[in-house]
Amino acid sequence: MFSWGIFIGTAQGGTCWCFPPTIGQFGRHDDTIAMEPYIQQQAVAKRDQPQVAQDCWTFSAPHGPQGRFVAYNPYFWAILSFSHNKSAAEDLLEYLCQRAQVEERTKAVSGFDIPPFDSMLDFTVWNEVEPPRGTVYHYPIRPSHHARPHVAGTPAAPDIAMQIYSRGTQPAMLAMLLTGKSIPQVIAWAEEELAGFVR
Known about the structure:
- The chain is 40% helix and 9% strand.
- It has nine helices and five strands.
- α8 packs antiparallel against α9.
């Protein structure tokens, strides 16, 4: 759940969606919920507000009637069809996807980039990031979460889902609810927004 243009905050508590404004707001309220990759927030708090970083934790999304869905942003590497040296590119890609190299890259980014294979979720990086130690243990999906990865906008067709994601449609809906719009008003807005995506 990411949105690039929405921020809501109050003096007593804050709910944040928006990078970079949440970075500046993180830790300024009595309580803050940041719906972004937590590791970004924790890294900035560690640098700018260490006392806030020591009290930060990450946890799985709540369980709803249809299950627990955790935001997932898959990424892929590819070899272009017009590449001049495909065999070398294939060898490099194979090397970079080996467990040892994936683990090194994951450590280099403090666990932010989650490996594409469940068999790699046992890396120790999520136990070691601090402060406090283990703060991001629950960042990747764990079996105990009983969760399923969810790519924003699915099961819409990829061209529509991409627009839902990049325009922050889902976080915008939540922000509208939090600012006083009714559920029917928010649904009407979303229907109009989606209709614009298919034109």
